């Protein structure tokens, strides 16, 4: 008689930080040394879809990523699963005649299937969407009461940047003060409708490049980079306030200035790490020069650039017109599949949508 399966599906977009997170003060709980702010992307282009299933017939917890089984034994998965299971509540499906009591969740096993709608190897942040989606889908399945911010503190333990993907629009990850990490969570600054004329173009500089883990070298940055100490103490606290103001007031000139400066300092910290870490390549640098020159010639910024742990450029245009001009310029100067080593463009039609 124990043949039933109960399933839930969730979809979560990735997010791009405009004030970056780099450096952990606690590596197990994933507690950062500074606040960060991000914009959540349109799910049509970069998102994860995860289905979670529970059944008395399942012998163990298992997970498949893009159809291939992956191990759940890592601490990051185990922490998320444990924290969600702790909060599981009674679930009843009268139609199917299923009743799962609170205490049953400890014994029941899960099957998890997760898909990215973008190439996982493209070096585009996939762990952010992945862990946020996993935690959100499990919370739905297990009838968890906690709100998005509380869930974000769980997703954070899978991947730091994942905590910011539980909301649309612009999101702030508050670093928190508590040692147990309970106040290190994400809050929504403004929703996806607040600044909807922004337009995002991602220049996939190289999808061939093997994904370098964004975590790799973070420990070394904390240990060896004096610039990181200065950034966390002196720069980011002020910059976060300015960025919040720019976002709330839809002040693109300030937004672009702060976004570009923060990306550049993030990569300067990587370079200031021993041994140094290089995420950008020649093409990335040429794109920066191109955008800087264009913005200067226009008198006021049309486009902001930001780069994560890889060479791909995330370009945020002030509106559709600026995005069209940007694309024209990029396609002329950096045609895909040429010796510029640029693979493709991902174009957001609706930029900030949940
Ligand atoms: O959360 P992680 O370990 O994937 O680190 C993400 C770090 C950056 O994407 C480079 C910056 C950020 O704040 O998202």
Automatic annotation (TrEMBL):
Origin organism lineage: Eukaryota, Viridiplantae, Streptophyta, Embryophyta, Tracheophyta
Indicate the family of this protein.
Belongs to the diphosphomevalonate decarboxylase family.
Q: Which domain of life is it from?
A: Eukaryota
State the reactions this protein catalyses. Answer: (R)-5-diphosphomevalonate + ATP = isopentenyl diphosphate + ADP + phosphate + CO2
Tell me which Gene3D superfamilies the record gives.
3.30.230.10, GHMP kinase, C-terminal domain
Question: What SUPFAM superfamilies would the database entry show?
Answer: GHMP Kinase, C-terminal domain (SSF55060), Ribosomal protein S5 domain 2-like (SSF54211)
What is the source species? Hibiscus sabdariffa (roselle)
| Designated name of the protein | Diphosphomevalonate decarboxylase
The coiled-coil segments of this chain are none
Keyword annotations for this protein, in alphabetical order, are:
ATP-binding, Lipid biosynthesis, Lipid metabolism, Lyase, Nucleotide-binding, Steroid biosynthesis, Steroid metabolism, Sterol biosynthesis, Sterol metabolism
In the UniProt record, does the keyword Nucleotide-binding occur?
A: yes
Question: Which residue intervals define the domain Diphosphomevalonate decarboxylase-like N-terminal in the entry?
Answer: 13-186
* Enzyme Commission designation: 4.1.1.33
Matching entries from InterPro entries are given as: GHMP_kinase_C_sf, Mev_decarb, Mev_diP_decarb, MVD-like_N, Mvd1_C, Ribosomal_Su5_D2-typ_SF, Ribsml_uS5_D2-typ_fold_subgr
Q: Any idea where the Mvd1 C-terminal domain is? A: 200-354
- State the function annotated in the UniProt record: Performs the first committed step in the biosynthesis of isoprene-containing compounds such as sterols and terpenoids.
């Amino acid at each position: 008689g124990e043949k039933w399966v109960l399933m839930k599906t969730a979809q979560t977009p990735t997010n791009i930080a405009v004030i970056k997170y780099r450096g952990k003060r606690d590596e197990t709980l994933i507690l950062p040394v500074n606040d960060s702010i991000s914009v959540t992307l349109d799910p049509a282009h970069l998102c994860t879809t995860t289905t979670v299933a529970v059944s008395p017939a399942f012998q163990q917890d298992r997970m498949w990523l893009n159809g291939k089984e992956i191990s759940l034994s890592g601490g990051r998965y185990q922490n998320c699963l444990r924290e969600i299971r702790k909060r599981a509540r009674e679930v009843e499906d009268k139609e199917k005649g299923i009743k799962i009591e609170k205490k049953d969740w400890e014994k029941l096993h899960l099957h998890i299937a997760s898909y990215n709608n973008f190439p996982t190897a493209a070096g585009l942040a996939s762990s952010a969407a992945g862990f946020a989606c996993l935690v959100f889908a499990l919370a739905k399945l297990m009838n968890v009461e906690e709100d998005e911010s509380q869930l974000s503190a769980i997703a954070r333990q899978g991947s730091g940047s994942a905590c910011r993907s539980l909301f649309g629009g612009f999101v702030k990850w508050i670093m928190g003060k508590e040692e147990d990490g309970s106040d290190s969570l994400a809050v929504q600054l403004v929703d996806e409708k607040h600044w909807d004329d922004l337009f995002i173009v991602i220049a996939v500089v190289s999808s061939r490049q093997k994904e370098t883990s964004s975590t790799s070298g973070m420990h070394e940055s904390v240990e060896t980079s004096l610039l990181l100490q200065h950034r966390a103490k002196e720069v980011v606290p002020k910059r976060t306030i300015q960025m919040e103001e720019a976002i709330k007031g839809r002040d693109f000139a300030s937004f672009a200035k702060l976004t570009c400066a923060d990306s550049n300092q993030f990569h300067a910290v990587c370079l200031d790490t021993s041994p140094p870490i290089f995420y950008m390549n020649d093409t990335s640098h040429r794109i920066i020069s191109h955008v800087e020159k264009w913005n200067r010639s226009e008198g006021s910024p049309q486009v902001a650039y930001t780069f994560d742990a890889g060479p791909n450029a995330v370009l945020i245009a002030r509106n559709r017109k600026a995005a069209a001009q940007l694309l024209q310029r990029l396609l002329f100067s950096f045609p895909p599949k040429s010796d510029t080593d640029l693979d493709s463009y991902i174009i957001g039609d609706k930029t900030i949508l949940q």
